[in-house]
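Why does this matter for the project? Reviewers at the last site visit asked to see concrete outputs rather than summary tables. In response, this paragraph embeds two records directly. Each consists of the residue sequence and, immediately after it, the corresponding structure tokens. Nothing has been edited or filtered.
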Amino acid sequence: MEINQEIEKSPSIKKKWNEESRKTWKIAGPAILTVVSQFSFEFVTAAFVGHIGNLELAAVSEVQNVVGNFVYGIMLGMGSALETLCGQAVGASQFNMLGIYLQRSWIISITTALFLTPIYIFTSPILKALHQQNQISTLAGKYALQVIPQIFAYALNFPIQKFLQSQSKIWVMTIISVLSLALHLLLSWVFVIKFKQGLFGAAMAGNVSWWILVLAQLVYVTFGFFQDSWTGFSFKAFKSLAKFVKLSLASAIMICFELWYFTAIILMVGGLKNATNAVDSVSICMNLESWVMMVALGFNASVSVRVSNELGAGRPETAKFAIMVNTITSAMIGLICAAMVMASKNKFPMIFTNKTDVIKETSKLGYLLGTTIFLNSIQPVLQGVAVGAGWQVKFSLVNIICYYVISLPIAGIWGAMLFGYFLQTITLFLIILGANWHKEAFKSEDRVKEWSGIKEPHLLRL
């Protein structure tokens, strides 16, 4: 394998852009639909619960944005080690280990889910200890117990996603996700509206929908559609688990400190007077922001796959060009979404609630929300570069310093979020701009050899 010099006898910039854009959208398009569909499970739940009452919406928001973000971040992070390993292995045409990596990730993720289950069991006392309102905390505790099955669905789902994305096999996963969302919408209406089962009905709709999604993907992966990368269950999956845990933890830390920033903001709001309206208004903004950010997460997946594949194949210049195409495309979409939110700041809260006070409070945040949405169209793409290149530890430190050391102590509630995103985006951009991509390609070759057991000397050359 060689690192290509990729000298500019190459096609014109326009032709290169069109070719890279085609590759980008081949991954990002279905990835956006997948991520939007899966995130929209919570969006749908919040929309249905919001029409039950303010207290119920606040309780579900606490579970989704505090407990859920905490657990979701860890589970997503533990599964994200596959993005680096599988992506670079695919670039190096080392398909034989992908199924083993997937099984190792399942073992680690399921074990992690078991350790995280007590957080759901003790949600109510945890929230009260964090000075959240008693009524909200009590109701949130009951709801959290009912959605425990979803933790174990995450444990299987996220590794499968990374396994499929690394091979650019996404469309079946997308179709399954869209159909599962349609089912969740139907079940939510049946349980919450038709049979008036309240929060219990909302929880059951989510549990059934998540597990149907996971089981359908399991069938797709294990029933002969991936003959090169899936050769059945193997005891090899139990080997080198400690090393795999180390890489998984690095990925989890990077993603967790990102998602937990939302949690910190919600907890700050929950300590205010009239916390129910405050939590409702900020949660509505975060729900909408997170939903729009799913588009950027499609490009996060795309740039992670493109960077890891190209580094694994020894083409660092192509990896750099892929970063530019993904970042600019996502930023342009983010700018459009931000403008739409600002223009409709008095209207979009009505999607979630019919309470006048909550609509008024949410509308006040319209311009800040739009600015945050734009920054969030860039930042996840830069995070995807980190995962594709294997920079999880470095980017974890950036997240900690930008968000928790600098932004939260010196800024207000929404100002902390906005300043944190701005500072982190600039820092990540400078790190990527100053990287030696030929050196990263060497590191990628070493990583592929180490994890596949190859002991040959370097084949890369400049």
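We now turn to the second protein, recorded in exactly the same manner.
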Amino acid sequence: MATEGPAMRRIQVAEHPRLLKLKEMFNSKFGSSPKFYVRAPGRVNIIGEHIDYCGYSVLPMAVEQDMLIAVEPVKTNTLQLGNTNPLYPDFSTSSNNIQIDKTKPLWHNYFLCGFKGIQEHFGLSDLTGMNCLVDGNIPPSSGLSSSSALVCCAGLVTLTALGMNLSKVELAEICAKSERYIGTEGGGMDQSISFLAEEGTAKLIEFSPLRATDVKLPSGAVFVIANSCVEMNKAATSHFNIRVMECRLAAKLLAKHKGLQWNKVLRLEEVQAQLGISLEEMLSVTEDALHSDPYSPEEICMCLGISLDELRTQILSQNTRDVPIFKLYQRAKHVYSEAARVLQFKKICEEAPDNVVQQLGELMNQSHRSCRDMYECSCPELDQLVDICRKFGAQGSRLTGAGWGGCTVSIVPVDKLPGFLANVQEAFYQGSDASFAPEKQSLFATKPGGGALVFLEA
């Protein structure tokens, strides 16, 4: 895989209406012109939900919506951040004293994650300040990775302002790590696709080491994103981190059951790798080793032979220490079956038989059922939206992103697209009990977009 950094392009800003508007807003805000612009796309995960942080491959593509930042390095040590959306207030801080508040996931903290990630990677103490104006058109808290796109954009902004170079893979790894400053124990999918995406192809993203492989999607179908209009901010709740910890605990109990060094194991994939068996065999091991009733912290301690204090301080994250029950069997079953579906999806895309769209759709449907029933990360609005999408012609539909709100992704035969869009619009967004704000109603077909870029004015 290529190791070069993100592309730099010279462009005529006047020919790009959004950039031109951003430049004018920058000028009126800071009284000067930007020196460069950076974009980082959001993504839709086609299949492979909640498994990247377990060590398993995922299959996302970048969407055309993105974060765009206009930047001017300044001589002072002040970092000034503005946002074109008035809902997000301005923020200013010293570039040498970055404080990220985990208790309040405010928009500027995501920028600070990317900034701090680059600062720490190079061990820099005296950093130049910047004026930055952010413009995003990814719907927030929708499962399309607006927050990670902002972290990635900020990382690339900082790197460019410093005049330094890193490969796309290095940038993705730094941004994945630095987003955890906000308190979310995520994997690396969102940051990886934001940097490694290429127009026209989805990517199989694998971890340890990070690498991306093209997956050609079938030409007879399009992927349609629909927003459930329920917002879910991963960092503002403990839902997400509880699932990460349940998977971690399941990995440790499975490792212990099989006589492995369980205290060294963090991810479900490590158990499979150490046993050297298939995903299907891991599902059998899960059946043998774990019971379907929820585990109390006390029972987990008994299984592992540790104290409650050791569990809380050495294994659990800060916001999961007081969780009363953990569903280990269900989470492990989801992860191992979902990891198998990702590989099956890629295989079908490569072999491309006649009824490929139907087969891919069935895998997406299975994925949604598993997310809903085994991982419990859906919500009534997502389930309703998935049902409506299938009713009006989607061969498969599923939640995408963390869940508990956000978007669905559906695979729709090209010839059914116009009717599909009209019917879903009417049934979900304009139904008798729908009262969604117009700006949250998003329903659009998307094709794989390109990755992060730096624009210089020609």
